[in-house]
Design a protein that fits this description.
The protein is α/β, with parallel strands linked by helices. Helices cover 35% and strands 19% of the residues. Strands 2-1-4-12-11-5-7-8 form an 8-stranded parallel sheet, sandwiched between helices. It has a two-stranded antiparallel ribbon with strand order 3-6. A two-stranded antiparallel sheet has the order 9-10. Helix 9 links the parallel strand 11 and strand 12. Helix 8 packs parallel to helix 9 and helix 9 packs parallel to helix 11. The relative contact order is 0.17.
Length: 302
């Protein structure tokens, strides 16, 4: 599996061991401020062109490291590339995240809205979201969630735990069992059974992980890296992995592309993201996890 380092920020700059594993670098830091948190169509089109020009399709699948989780909405572009390259008629997207990323957002893509776009991408059968335990799943209908994705069968959501401590999360007219209620073995079997296509794309936001395993710009979940590795292996045993991406590396934000967007994004981050200084060990912690993920994907696609 070819590693691709999509430089939208400086999150990967100090991860020398990771970068030393080879692969391809796509330099797009000039687009980063316009893309961070949310983006309009021109910046997304510019990134699509950059990927087309600097990352021609390889013989096998790509594993894209894209920096902060503030850029998770680039995933639909990566899915479209992977679907086109592999020629699969139907693909399941397996999405590991502490947030469902299913809100409604007009005139562009938001790091919290991209799941709807991905779920409606031609060739995508559905998105299976795994590991959420953020407050976004508490009364989601009051938080701009696009619950038509659930009612139409385009999105399935399996939380790490239900916020009320019970075994079930109810979203709209659907009940979803939690990972903790099912136990690891039971949930692995369930997840594999819900993949009904021969091909799968995997996207990981490391904020799904506990703070021991990742340091991110967002509130974090409780999944361990070892548990995530088991889940990825189970997915790869069930279907062919046609591509993957990893976000969730902490980086110092730069917002754009203009003054108004800068102010709006700063305000949104102030309200939604944890506050604190620069974490001192973020590069070491995140690189260690990225190296394990790189080895894992090399193993399951060999």
């Amino acid at each position: 599996m070819r590693p691709v380092f999509l430089n939208l920020d400086n999150a990967l700059d100090a991860q020398h061991a990771l970068r030393g594993r080879g692969g391809l670098t796509v330099e797009a830091r000039d687009l980063g401020p316009a893309l961070r948190l949310w983006s309009r169509a021109p910046a997304l089109a510019a990134l699509s062109a950059r990927l087309r020009d600097q990352a021609a399709s390889a013989a096998g699948p790509d594993l894209v490291f894209a920096g902060s989780g503030d850029f998770h909405h680039v995933t639909p572009l990566l899915i479209e590339r992977a679907v086109a390259a592999c020629g699969a008629r139907a693909v399941t997207v397996v999405h590991f995240d502490n947030h469902p990323d299913w809100v409604r957002f007009e005139n562009g893509l938001h790091c919290g809205s991209w799941v709807g776009h991905a779920a409606r991408t031609p060739g995508v059968a559905k998105v299976i979201t795994v590991g959420v335990c953020s407050s976004d799943i508490d009364r989601p209908e009051t938080k701009r969630a696009d619950l038509s994705l659930v009612s139409e069968g385009r999105v399935e959501l399996y939380p790490y735990r239900a916020l009320d401590g019970g075994p079930i999360l109810r979203v709209g007219d659907r009940n979803w069992p939690s990972m903790t209620a099912m136990g690891q073995e039971g949930f692995i079997n369930l997840l594999a059974s819900r993949i009904e296509t021969d091909a799968v794309y995997i996207t990981i936001d490391k904020d799904v992980l506990r703070p021991d395993d990742a340091i991110t710009n967002w509130d974090q979940g409780q999944l361990s890296l070892a548990a995530l590795e088991r889940l990825v292996r189970a997915v790869a045993e069930r279907a062919r992995v046609i591509g993957a991406d990893v976000v969730g590396d902490w980086s110092q934000p730069r917002y754009g592309p203009d003054l108004l967007s800068n102010l709006l994004k700063r305000g949104e981050a102030f309200l939604d993201q944890p506050r604190g200084g620069v974490p001192g060990d973020q590069s070491r912690t995140n690189e260690a996890t990225n190296l394990r993920l790189l080895s894992l994907f090399a193993e399951v696609t060999s």
